[in-house]
Amino acid sequence: MTRQNQGLSESVSSQLDTWNRSNVLDLDDFSRSEVETVFEVTDTMQEVLSERTPRIPDLQSQTVVNLFYEPSTRTRTSFERAAKIMSADTINVSGSGSSVEKGESLIDTVRTLESMGTRVIVMRHRQAGAPYLASRHVQTSIINGGDGAHAHPTQALIDLYTIRNKLGAIEGLKVVIVGDILHSRVARSNIWGLVCMGAKVTLCAPLTLLHNDFLLAYKEVEGHLNVEPELDLALEDADVIMTLRLQEERQKQGLLPSIREYIKYYQINSERLRKAKPHALLLHPGPVMEGIEISTDVSRSTNSVIDEQVENGVAIRMALLHLVAGD
Amino acid sequence: MKQEIPLLVKGGRIIDPAQDSDFLGNVLIENGVVSWMMREGEKLPALPENYHILDAKGLIVCPGFIDLHCHLREPGFEAKETIETGTTAAAVGGFTTVCAMPNTQPVLDNASLIDFVYQRSSQEGVVRVLPIGAITEGSNGKNLAEMYEMASAGAIGFSDDGKPVSDPNIMRQALTYSKGVGLPIIEHAEDIGLSSGGAMHDGWVSARLGLVGIPSAAEESAILRDISLVRETGGRLHVAHVSTAGSLEAIKRAKDDGLSVTAEVTPHHLALTHEWILGRREFGSNGHVYDTLAKVNPPLRTSNDCEALITALEQGVIDLIATDHAPHTPEDKLVEFGDAAVGFTGLETAAGLLLTLVQQKRLDLLTVIRSLTEKPASLLATKVSGLGSLAVGSVGDITLLNLSSNWVVDSSNFQSKGKNTPLDGATLTGQVVATVYGGRVVHDSENRFAVERKGALDG
After folding, report:
1. Confidence (pLDDT) at B450
2. pLDDT-above-90 percentage for chain A
């Protein structure tokens, strides 16, 4: 057994009390200690990853299926790499080229995967709620890799972990989420996670990209969440700026007059960045459209932790695979 | 046969809103019609030599319920429901008349298909089925269907239910043409431009779940449009399944102005809210987040909407209650939320849900009975007479209710093929005990029917 594996076992035993989930569907019901458990295991996984040829036997002879009904590069490859490092057999099933295209139901698909002995299904689906449907019909662990506009808990955990590593703690931070919040599963999961960890969250978007009842939707976290549509005001004293992907189709849908106007009023550029705290972190879940959501200079500035987010992705996903399925 | 033998419905509390009656008494049905209705203690007319008894002691006796809006799915979708199973479910739910929506396959858009429904229901129907014809051919929203012919074949109104007539000019012509035919346009009011892609009510729950919402304005603006068209054409409009508080003001004003506008509400829009899609439940039923069983169109709205709809029903702004019984197969619902079929199976839970609201003192009993009997009957009166009342000479349709019995909804016991209800597992208070259709007992859950008795009425 390698040094890392011993470390892993020790950390596991201390975490048994705070972890009894077999699925990770969203962060809405996560406790702070559960998030901290994920952080601790992720730290251990980072050590594993720092090895020259990282490999641990955690998921030896277990099968992890990446069931992706929607195209994804980063989430899928990051999960695949995580599973491979943990010695799992990985299978990628995508929405095209499978029985999914022949109209096989989601329930049939996940049941089939279960009967093949699959230990974990990582699922990406364009419809909100799909992993919840799956989880009700199989014992196999389900990790939500993004469902419609609803949730993307692994990305949110990456963001939380990145912030915690850079700033030491999340408690008391002011986090501004800027952009297409209406369609963002990343924003929705981050609101739960950030508030759970003690941050105050400000939502900033043109109002067509932010539902009228958003604050009501999160009434449990009342007082920790507010809306400020004017970016300069929203950014005042911000510790963290979380930007979101803007899809060009929003303009065609009539939600925005033009991308040009969006850039003018909602892009994070160096001038706007100065409204925030000097060492404010800039996050983006990717893929970044440089020059739209963020100006090029800012996305490459020292404030930007976009690369760290990607780097932390594998370790977070290893940690989650370990927690739901590890020995 | 049984039908030949008179039926005495004995010793119940008779509530007949059409006659303002509410007293303990007896009703005799002979040859399928009410031959008399007497208070307890009044000297009875001579009883026939042979008659059957339906013991109504401790129960409410009211006219058989009329459902102006249900989906029997035949022809074309027999896996979801048939006329046989749908009317059996109706009998269990206390409905003796059900109006079948035309969104079958093929769509009921011509006289021969209206004939088909009558023919099937005469063979297989357990209760009366009155078909509704389509407004447009194949409900395509473009060409008017042959309304005169459908009317002469027995259609009781016209609807493209399931979808609205989006083109305002077609709606204008439909209201004008049907006025000549003498039958109402039953409109599914929804502005597709606002609702398209929506899966549930647009509000805080949809915002939280990341689902596309159907704003209340989608219904309200469509109703406003239709009322403007009625104002101009003098047409006859019945608004199906009203779901929002904002719709009520427009309907009230149309009525105050003397326009020929009526409206219906479903039991579920009176009682259930969009929180049910988060898995929150009243009545102890089983729910979970993204529950497709709570997906319906128009969607479940807010508790404010429910309260406003109840008030509107009690004040007569909404005329009547209709189930919008929409049976589906399990496969139609066991899919992703956005793909799931809309609608609830409703015939067998309607009375229970409404009487539970009565029990909770949120809704008045007389309003419930009136909304299921006298009111829908008056809408059908030009076509079918004698429904919705126990007045002498009326059709011998009777529903017996127990107001206080608790029962648990178990969809596996439904007569309907559709088990799709969010109320599964709910404990409801009040239920239909027996149903009489044309003097024949078609549902009797407590064995209250007794065969042939001779001699005078005692007790």
Report:
1. 85
2. 86
Tell me: pLDDT of B456 over 70.
no
- Could you give the CA distance from residue A187 to residue A192 in angstroms, rounded to a whole number? 9
Q: A3-152+312-325 maps to which CATH number?
A: 3.40.50.1370
Task: Indicate if B324 belongs to the active site.
Answer: yes
Name the residue ranges covered by the structural domains of chain B.
64-387+404-428
In the 8-state DSSP scheme, what is residue B46? P
Give the active site residue among B67, B202, B319, B324.
Answer: B324
- Residue B204: its chain A contacts at CB < 8 A? 213-214, 216-217, 219
Q: Given CB atoms, is A124 within the 8 Å cutoff of chain B?
A: no
Residue A15 neighbours by CB under 8 Å, 6+ apart: A37, A40, A41, A323
Residue A6 clears pLDDT 60, i.e. is over it:
no
Domain A153-309 sits in which CATH superfamily? Aspartate/ornithine carbamoyltransferase (3.40.50.1370)
Residue to substitute from B209, B303, B333, interface A, most A β-carbons within 10 A: B209
Looking at chain A, which residues constitute the CATH 3.40.50.1370 domain(s)?
3-152+312-325, 153-309
- Token reading at A144: 């939500």
| A101 has a pLDDT exceeding 80 | no
Whether B455 shows a pLDDT value over 80: the answer reads no
Which residue is listed with tokens 């470390």? A7
pLDDT at residue A4 greater than cutoff 60: no
What is the value of ipTM here, to two decimals?
0.94
Give me the total of CB pairs closer than 8 Å, taking one residue from chain A and one from chain B.
67
> Closest approach of chain B CAs to the CA of A134, in angstroms?
9
Return the percentage of chain B with pLDDT > 90, whole number. Answer: 93
**Across B408-418, average pLDDT:** 98
Mean pLDDT value across residues B405-413: 97
DSSP-based helix, strand, coil % in chain B, nearest 5: 35, 25, 45
Fold for B64-387+404-428, please state it. TIM Barrel (3.20.20)
Q: What SS3 class is residue A174?
A: strand
CB contact under 8 A, B209 and A128: yes
CB within 8 Å: B288 and A136: yes
**DSSP-derived pairing of the beta strands B427-437 and B440-444:** antiparallel
- For residue A130, the chain B residue with the least C-alpha distance is B336
Nearest CB neighbour to B207, from listed A105, A148, A214: A214
The pLDDT tens digits for A180-197 are 999 999 999 999 999 999
A130–chain B Cβ distance below 8 A for any pair: yes
Residue type, A71: P
- Is B345 in contact with B326 (CB distance < 8 Å)? yes
Q: What's the number of CA atoms in the CB half-sphere (13 Å) around residue A222?
A: 5
Preceding amide of A57 cis, omega within 30? no
A positions 163-202 inside 8 Å of B (CB): 183, 185, 188
Question: What pLDDT is recorded for position A3?
Answer: 42
Q: Which residue has the higher pLDDT, A40 or A327?
A: A40
Arithmetic mean of pLDDT, B136-155: 98
Most B CBs within 10 A among A207, A213, A222, hence the mutation to make, goes to: A213
CA dihedral B377, B381, B385, B389 (to 10 degrees): 30
Q: What's the confidence (pLDDT) of residue A31?
A: 96
